[in-house]
Fold these 3 entries.
Entry 1:
Amino acid sequence: MRLVVLGLSLSSAWGNGHAVTFRALLSAFAARGHEILFLERETPWYAAHRDLSDPDYCRLAFYSDLRDLDRYGEAVRGADAVMVGSYVPDGIEVGRWVRRTAKGVVAFYDIDTPVTLARLAQGECDYLAAGQIPDYDVYFSFTGGPTLARLEQELDSPAARALYCSADPATYRPQQAEKRWDLSYLGTYSVDRQPTLERLLLEPARRLPGRRFVVAGPQYPDDIAWPANVERIDHLPPAEHSTFYAASRFTLNVTRADMRAAGHSPSIRLFEAASCGCPIISDTWPGLETLFTPGEEIILAETGDAVVDALSRPAAAVQAMGEAARRRLLSQHTPSHRAQTLERELIAAMRAKTKDRPMKSISDSQTILVAGGAGFLGSHLCDRLLADGHHVVCLDNLQTGDLVNLESAMKQSRFEFVRHDVVEPLPERIVERKFDRIYDLACAASPPQYQQDPEHTMLTCVLGVSHMLKLAEKTGARLLLTSTSEVYGDPEVHPQPETYRGNVNPIGPRACYDEGKRAAESLVFDYDRAGRSDVRVARIFNTYGPRLSAADGRVVSNLITQALADAPITIYGDGEQSRSFCYVDDMISGLIALMEHEGPQPGPINLGNPVELSVSELVRLILDLTGSGSEIEHGPLPIDDPRRRRPDIGKAEAVLGWRPTTALEDGLRRTIDWFDADRRPLRGEQPALIA
Ligand code: NAD
Ligand code: UDP
């Protein structure tokens, strides 16, 4: 997805915890394949203290003031989600601008929830107005627990979700070091933490003069009477944190008063220490037990006595507790876990938005061009579009398609057929027409068929879509390209999400199709980037159903015709290769849902049925359903035949609210019945030929 973040700072971690949080979260989010633009307000303080200007996981851009933000209007409009952070200068106005501009999900990320709530109650919050909370689709909060219910129930947030900080286990690692201190504390001075620090560190230090303590952090007043066995370090750079924790037998976690009162507000310190495997003694607050198990992964202490008691524990038990805390961190509290939470919640918000969107009225009749409309999928699409009241022009060279498929379409006055090869420039009579939608399905889809004339297949993909895009640009139509799961080649990632870039052999016999479709996709997205046309790309996974050509050589048509004729069943290879089969009606619904998706251009979307089975399993099912006595015959596996294929359809579900509903057995029964019935020859009215 495309995410735009407007946050306090990414470029400078000086004097703010936001940058550290954003860096960890966004780099992990980008690693999941998402595209991020971070917009930061240019301020003299952060400009003078930049320690990151060119992150490799996202685009970082600066704006000078609210008016300057308009430069990023296009990016915000085109984003799937936009997130505004707490403490953004003029945050209220920024939030209003985002709300007016964005078309996708809009979220707020509060890295200071207790402060925000206190300020809102006093009417003094300058980065968020209470009235804006219902307008943010999701309110991500550094504080979880009952505060989330309060945000939803009292402040009308549609969805308040915890998005805690985390620690990167690659940076914060256990290290070998001599233990210099029995108990350490790392934190800037703060008035409200000082009494706890006094009780849980300074008092035990006075009682245990033989033990060594350390407090690292700036801004402690000069008049603090540090006991002699408490070492002071004024500034400890982040690069030295791991060694600091490694040299500590225990470290102390002290929480800000407002965070403690709200509960469920872990500090970065807590996770960093756990990530280093350093045993932690923590102050107590509600919700801590949901993050680390007291007694096993962390020690809770209310009093100096409890600390003194902890410091006398045997070394082996102490070390085991540090290791347990690290294990917990690795399993639940890394940046990658937070990125997953962010992704999951944004997708849920997108889904909620899609559900609310009113369905397009059937009376909005459109003129629609379907290239490849005489084929298997194209003819079903024409039928559905006609049934929905549209005017359909079908363009096809009948290379693999058949007018028999259009028998019912041709009876309708709102249907026209044009015989034309899309490799050639489009005929005048098409170019002169006004179209609202263009579906580009023109291309043989069965491996034996598309390999028959590979040059023509490649040109069909590339020149075909180029001609369609030019027409779309000229006529202002939205274009949908039917791409394919073949763009993932023989995939090394399973199941295949849209972010996977594939493993395609560019010089093999399948390349004319795989690479042709990849080139077609790139052309489509070039048109999108240049603002030349409104586009959609479906990556279709194996689809089957009535009107599959008996002779096209695809697995479902082959197996059914063989089984019905009691002829040998041809399994290529050992039959262990897998596919996931989608019934044609589901596919057509998905294609139309994608075409009519009104949000920002959503990038390529997988359409298919995620139920995966091996070719041998498919054979068994078809033999059962047909009651056939066919023998099985093994043949050679075609070159570059993908071993496994299954769509990850999370994006289709989130963006389109679509998922297939036809069970494989039901779909196969209908397909078998269709193959079994006598097919009627083409007769009746002739099509309205316009070329
Ligand atoms: P199909 O072969 O039944 O239909 C393709 C249609 O395009 C045919 O009517 C054919 O005559 C026409 N065509 C081919 N080359 C043409 C050209 N140069 N000019 C004009 N018309 C041409 O295939 P299908 O299964 O209906 O597939 C339709 C689209 O969906 C294709 O683009 C294919 O790549 C894509 N797709 C299908 C599947 C699937 O499982 N069915 C899977 C992935 C992608
Ligand atoms: N296949 C098979 N027997 C056949 C036709 C195909 O075993 O008669 C296998 C083929 O090798 C591939 C899978 O079935 O592994 C699906 O093949 P198909 O040609 O339908 O489409 P693909 O997914 O390979 O594009």
Entry 2:
Amino acid sequence: MPALLIDGKAEAKRVCEQVAQGVKAFAEQHGNAPGLGVILVGSDAASDVYVRNKVRETQSVGMHSFEYRLPTQTSESELLTLIESLNADNKIHGILVQLPLPPGIDVNRVIESIKPEKDVDGFTITNTGRLAAGLNGLVPCTPAGVMILLKQVHSELAGLNAVVVGASNIVGKPMARLLLSEGCTVTIAHKKTVDLKSLCKQADILVVATGVAQLIKGDWIKPGATIIDVGISRVDQDDGSTRLVGDVHFESAWEYAGAITPVPGGVGPMTIACLLANTLIAAERLASSSVQV
Ligand code: GUN
């Protein structure tokens, strides 16, 4: 039987519609819509596209978008000064610094300078720790989006074997924590993992976030498994054109999987939808904490 194609675009649209309703209610109650500040330093082409998409989607759900495009030569202290001003600005409820940052800027210092309540990427130590401890915080957007997709396929995740390939702070580690919190038995595979193929074959749920194009082949997959492909790479074709592919070799994986995300149109749209959901959550929490005495 062919695999179920997990439609991230349709699911993201549903999440964005819900966020738009929440934004309307927030604006009616507080007199102003939530605001998201997005900072891009330098001229990385991929980052430029991501930021443009984030700005467009923020506006489409009725939020205010504040965009800060800084030159590559921007110093760390100039960037920290901007973040400090956004931390103090009541019109801004979420702050996102697009990564990667140019060399010479300490990414950890920059992330830590974001007020945790406005850290809509969920990258600060406070939000990382809250997630690890099972406490309410702001959860990184891509793993949050993946969990929504998985819950579309599985009414119950508890007891399933989940393998996360890739151990980044942005995706792999928070992904594993979310799967664990749902009762999955979780393994994180990484560059040093021995016999990745055998490990992948044991996974009921396989989440791949390595940045290595088409790393996972069909015969690495347990028949019927759910495959979530977080990767996106542009590869050359024989005819001189290029196309986008994921970290999973889709054409062969499709034959084995029970359900699989396409690239593009799978996880990507969910990341932005969850960024907007996080911004609304941040705005609601900030508003309720400011009325308490
Ligand atoms: N660069 C690639 N992915 C991300 C992300 O999720 N957030 C930020 N801030 N930068 C990124």
Entry 3:
Amino acid sequence: MSLVTMKELLKRASDKNIAVGAFNVANMEMLIGAITAAEKLDTPIIIQVAESRLAFSPLYLIAPMMVEAARKASVPVAVNFDHGKTLENIGEALKYGFTSVMFDGSSFSMEENVRKTNECADLASKYGATVEGELGVLAGNEGDGDVAKSLYTKPDDAVSFAKEAHIDALAVAIGNAHGKYVKTPNLQFDILKEIHERVDLPLVLHGGTGISPEDFQKCIRLGVRKVNIATANFEACLEGAMNLAGTEGPKNYFTMNEAMVECVRENVEKHINIFNMR
Ligand code: 13P
């Protein structure tokens, strides 16, 4: 069915009042697992790789694989460059055919974030790609879900940012964090509600790993149209290999490949089913 822009999938999600899952992948097994899940459930997805992970999954290898997998998929798939930090890598991803880029300017001042996000948007517009911006600081990298370090997105700032930054989607910080939550996340739904009421953009929830189905549902009712899942996917891949080690059957690369694909598929399916619920 094909490679599509993220904008298209966000619109579909808004029309249906659901969210589209954005799944981080690091290798071929994770990629196949994610696409297989989407095809099985006949649901579009976003596949993405974060700039911070390029040391493990070099762009020149992972990017062609992701774009080709999306082209060949039987459901619409968008390919997103997650947490882009440099115009150089964002530009590379776009050249490989990514249909969406996120610029993570959350560590900059508002003015600097707007300026750099717009540089990224100018570049993305040459490729017809979708742009996601971020406002507010999310704690943690994958593996560190310390919410204490986060700074919530201020609704007033979100309104200004949405006006000045040329973005198609806005990632918000409402008590969500990357990685495993050290304690149950306490999402600030009042902040999300206010941003949703005042900002006419699809909202993005990062730090999806460990959020309960009920909280996902609440976020979706309050305008979240894209949910990012990374850590749970990496863990599913590892779990596939670890579980295989404990079984009696044959152990070789090929059985490991199948075990990893299967665990990632299950994880992605589980999340798609939650995000598709109305
Ligand atoms: P998790 O690792 O918590 O799932 O967060 C994913 C994410 O937001 C990637 O940008």
